[in-house]
Amino acid sequence: MTEQRDLSFLSSSSVPRRRDALRLLSAAALGAGAWPAFAQDSKRLPRLVTVSGAITEVVYALGAEGQLVGTDTTSLFPAAARATPKVGYMRQLSAEGLLSLKPDAIIATNESGPTVVLDQIRTAGVKVEIIEADHSWVEVQRKVQAVGRAAAKEVQARELQARLDAEWAQVLQRIGGAKGRKPKVLFVLSHSASPQVSGEKTAAHAVIGFAGGVNALGGFNGYRPMTAEAMASAAPDIILTSTQSIEAHGGVERFWQRSELALTPAYKKRALITQDALLLLGFGPRLPAAIGELHDKFRAALA
């Protein structure tokens, strides 16, 4: 973890002073001759910082992990990513911490921030690739393309994308051919003492639909607290959650002890499905495998 220091001077209302400060910070972080040397030395590959576990996965899938100089704390797969220098949580980035790693490019999603920090990084002369996260297959494609551009591995990115597109088409064809009713699935996010349930326009809503299920809750976007009333009205066949949520509860039995869950059909059958949070919600290169696995678990739960 890089040292965090007060960067309040960067938000000064005095534009000239702010620009001067950023130039000094950029020079200190990148080195006076870094950019000219990079332009002249075509053999040196760009130094990358990734801010998203799924984007980090793409870097490894492209064989560009040697170019990684930093990742955020959501970058947990593959295991080697955990040993990379960390720049903090994706929504709480520091300009000084990022620049201290001397990156040529930072690749992040529009869920990263604060925005002012990313603006400061650009002003310091570092390329910032921002990928729109809209919980679609196109999002995965955007990540592969962005990493390919930033890492100077566009040929490899096209090859990876072709393989992933084929895998995605195959899994969707298999799910589309499934017979029988679609299960009502409720996603519970419970990494803390206050569980929440997923509505629409969330990664959980999207993966449930891709895997051949129906979100048991609708009529609102984002997440809401899990209440007895919500559980009774949702009446899910299946509860879906992350393995991290189960760990936070102290195990499966402790999870089922929540009184709100007792009001659901899923409780009667103990129909609980778990997946690793990054695999389930990350929208990275493992999405086809994650959706295929989830679909199989949905069918088994209804059997």
Automatic annotation (TrEMBL):
> What InterPro entries does the record point to?
ABC_Transporter_SBP, ABC_transptr_periplasmic_BD, TAT_signal
In terms of Pfam families, this protein maps to: Peripla_BP_2
Membrane spanning stretches: none
- Provide the Fe/B12 periplasmic-binding domain boundaries: 47-303
What protein does this entry describe? Iron complex transport system substrate-binding protein
Q: Which organism is it from?
A: Variovorax boronicumulans
